[in-house]
Amino acid sequence: MVIRIAKKEWKEQLREKRFLAAGLLMVLLFGAALISSKAYYEKEQDLRLHAQQGIEENWLNQRDKNPHGAAHYGIYLFKPESRLALIDRGVNRYAGTAFFVEGHVRNEAQFRKIEDETGLVRFGELTPAYILITLMPLFIILIGFNAFTKEREGGTWKMLQSHNVPMHKLLLGKWAGVTITVLMLLIPLFMLMGLIIYSVSGFGEFSLAHYLILGVVYTLYYLIFINLTLIVSWFSKKSGAAFITLLAIWIVATLVVPKLFVSAAQYLNPMPDTNAVAEMYRDARTGGIDGHVPSSARELERQVMEEYGVETLEDLPFNFAGYRLQVGEEYDTKAYNYVFSHIHSAISEQDALIRRGSLISPFLPVRNLSMAMAYTDVNNHWDFSEAVELYRQDFVRYLNEDLMYSSRTGETYLAGSDVWAAKPDFSYELPGMGEVLKAQSGNLFLLFGWVGISFLGLLTIKSKSGEG
Amino acid sequence: MLKTDQLTKRYGDLTAVRELNLEIKEGEIYCLLGPNGAGKTTTVNLFMGFAAPDEGQVFINGLDVTNHALETRRHLSYIPENLALYPNLTGIENLEFFAGLSNGQITDTDLKKLLSEAGLQQSAFDQRVSGYSKGMRQKVGIAIALAKDSKALILDEPTSGLDPQASNEFARLLEILSDKGVAILMTTHDLFRARETGTRIGIMRDGVLRREFNAGDVKHDELEQVYLEQVLQKVQEA
C-alpha cells in the first residue's frame, strides 16, 4: 500500500506543471552555478599556479643580498584547495588564500577575491552550494506543501478513509513519494556535479569520501525539510496557508536566522580591526607580555658576551647581528601569538554564538558542514594560517642563522642562490576526514538532532490521527 | 446489511440525526430524501465512520461501525456528491490506485473490464480525470465500487448536476449492483430518480425520518406532495 501511494504521489508530481517548472528552474540555475563556479575555480587555480611558479623563480633568482634583506623580500604561500571548493567557496573569497611570509610580521591572508568584485557581489553569488542549501528546500516546499491539504480540498481524503488507508501508511507513502521526487532531481545533479569536479584535472585534490559525505549531509538536510513540509501540510486546513507557513519557515531558516546570528556575533564579540590589531601588537611589543620587557640591544650584547666569555662582539663565534635579529624575531612571534590568540578567541566566541542559531535553523550546521567538507571554512583557514606562521618562523630562523653562522660580527655578508635554494620547504596537507569530522562533531550532532526531531514531528501526525 | 438503531448525532445544540432506525437489506436501493439540513449527509458520515454517534449504533454486515470502523469499511464503497479523484491521473490509473488499496494488484485487463462495466467509454480510459465530466467521474466511482466487490454502497447525492442521460446511465449501474446483491443507500433531492431507481424511499427532516415508502407502492404525485409538505414545514419553521 505504501509503495502504491508513493507511486501515485510521484506520478502526480511528474504531471504537475508546478513541479516541472520548479524542477526545470532548479536544473537551469544549478547548471549556471556549476559552469560559472568551474570557470571561476579553473581561472583562480591557473592564476595561482602561475603566481606560485613566478614567486618561486623570483626567490631563486634574487640577487645576492644580506639574508635579512631576503627575509623582507619574502615569499607568498597559497592555501591548497580541495576541488570541492568548486561547490562551496565558503570564506575563501572573503578571507583570502595567499599569505605573504616575511621577517618580523605575521601577515593575514591577502588577495581576497571580494576586493576585486564590484558592489554587485553584495547581492550574493550563485554557487552550487547556494542552490543546494538555500534553494533546494524551497523546491521541496513547492512540491510537498499540499501533500495532505490537496487530499482534503479535493475530497480524496474521504475516499482514502473509505478504503481503510491507515494513517501511518498514507504518511509513509507521502513521505516516500516526496523523497523519491527530490532524490530523482538530486541524484542526477549530484552525479553530474561529481563528474565535472572530477574532470577538472590538474588542480586541487578530489576526495570521493568528502564528496559522498557532503551528499549525505545535504540529503539529511532535505529530509528535515521534507518532514517539516509534511507536518505543516498535515496541520494546515488549506494549501495556501500551508504554503505561506512553509515559506515563512524557509525565510526564517535560510535568510533571517543566519544573518541575525552573524550580526549578533559580530556585535557581541567584535573582531579587532586592523588598527586595533596593530595597537595590540604595539602594546604587546613595548609593554611586555606577562611583565617580561624585552632586553635592550645593549643589554643583550652584554648578556651574550658574558655567556660566551668574550670582551667584544667581534670575538663571538657567530655574527651577533643575526643572533639579535633571531631574538627579536622570537619576541615578535610571541607578540603575534598573543595578538592572534585574541583574534582566535573572538572567532571561537562568534562561532559558539552562531552555533546557538542552529537550534532554530538547520541551515547553519549544514552550511558549516558543507564548507568544512570543501575545506573552505574558517577552521581550515585558521589551520592553514597557523601552518604558515610555523613555516614563517622556520623560514626567518633559517635566514637569520645563515647570517649568524656564515659571517662574523661586523663583516659584510651577502648570501647567494645556494642559500635561497636551500630554504626550508613548505608542506601543508589538508586535514584528514577524521580531523574534519571531529572538528565538526557539534554541527553533526545538531544536524542529526534536527533530523531526529523532524521524524518525531511526523510521529505526532500519526498520534494526532488517532493511530498513536 | 446496513442498519441503524436509535442513532443520534448532535453538533453542539443542533441534533443532526435523532433516533434514526433504518435497515437496508442486500439488493435493496434505499433512497433517502430530504431538504438541505435534513441530516442525510450526517447519516452517510455515520455509516462511513467519518463521525461518531452520540447515541445509538450503526451496523454494517452485523458489525458495529464505532467499534469496528476498519472492518466495516471493508464491506463498504462510498461515492460522494462530487466524486473526488486525482485529476492528474487517468481514469484507469485512478481505478488502479483505489482498487489496489483494497484488493492489491489488479491486471490491466480487469481494470478495463471494470471501467467498461461501469459504462465509461474506452477512449476515456487513458485520459486524465481533470478533463472528465461529472458523469464520467461517477462511472469511475462505480468501477471502484465494483472492484472492491463491496456488500454495501453509500452514495451522497450522486446524481445532482448530472444531465438526464448520465443520470439514467447511473441508475442503470445501480440496478446492476443491486442485482448482484449490494445494499445501496443513496441520498438525493431527485424525487423522480428515487421513485424510478429505489426499492424503498425515506424522507428526513430535521434529523428525523418522517416517512418511509416502498417505491412500488407510491405514485410520483403522492411522493412529491409528501416531500413538499416536509419542505414547507421546514420553511415555516425557519
Characterization of the model:
The complex is a heterodimer of chains A (468) and B (238). Helices cover 71% and strands 2% of the residues of chain A. Chain A has 19 helices and 2 strands. In chain A, helix 1 crosses helix 9. Chain A is elongated, with a radius of gyration of 29 Å. With 238 residues, chain B is α/β, with parallel strands linked by helices. Chain B has 2 domains: 1-11 and 27-75 and 150-238, P-loop containing nucleotide triphosphate hydrolases (Rossmann fold, 3-Layer(aba) Sandwich), CATH 3.40.50; 83-149. Helices cover 39% and strands 26% of the residues of chain B. Chain B has 8 helices and 10 strands. In chain B, the strands form 2 sheets. Chain B has a 6-stranded mixed sheet, sandwiched between helices. In chain B, strands 2-1-4-5 form a 4-stranded antiparallel sheet. The chains are: A mainly alpha (468), B alpha/beta (238). At the A-B interface, helix 1 and helix 8 of A face strand 6 and helix 3 of B.
Strand segment count of chain A: 2
Supply the CATH architecture of the largest domain in chain B.
Answer: 3-Layer(aba) Sandwich
CATH superfamily of the largest domain in chain B: P-loop containing nucleotide triphosphate hydrolases
Structural class of chain B: alpha/beta
Compute the separation of the termini of chain A in Å.
19 Å
Please provide the ordered H/E string of secondary-structure elements of chain A. HHHEHEHHHHHHHHHHHHHHH
Count of separate DSSP helical elements of chain A: 19
Helix content of chain B: 25-40%
Provide the residue-averaged pLDDT of chain B: 83
Helix content of chain A: over 70%
Number of domains of chain A: 1
Integer-rounded radius of gyration of chain B? 18 Å
User: What is the strand arrangement across the widest sheet of chain A?
Assistant: 1-2
End-to-end separation of chain B: 36 Å
The order of strands across the largest sheet of chain B is 6-7-8-3-9-10
Q: What's the overall geometry of chain B? A: globular
Low-confidence stretches of chain B: none
Low-confidence stretches of chain A: none
Name of the CATH first level of the largest domain in chain B: Alpha Beta
Strand count, sense and barrel status of the largest sheet of chain A are:
2 strands, antiparallel
This entry's quaternary arrangement is: heterodimer
